[in-house]
Hints:
Blueprint: H1 2-45, H2 55-67, H3 69-76, H4 88-95
Amino acid sequence: xxxxxxxxxxxxxxxxxxxxxxxxxxxxxxxxxxxxxxxxxxxxxxxxxxxxxxxxxxxxxxxxxxxxxxxxxxxxxxxxxxxxxxxxxxxxxxxx
Length: 96
């Protein structure tokens, strides 16, 4: 009997977790465009943000300002000379 109860509880918990995850994913997808807009507005509102940056970081900031966060992430994970995808460690070495 205990196994049946445990199985029922597991099923209810799994269903609840799936529902919460689905809702969070739907919400994230719905807000992706607004998040991108937020990033563009944030960068544009801080015109002096790049004053202390090296050229590599200034270029990434410019991409974020003009094309949004997704483009900036793609830019930062791509070697600008070879077009090769960078590892996370390589990206951090370049952009901090």
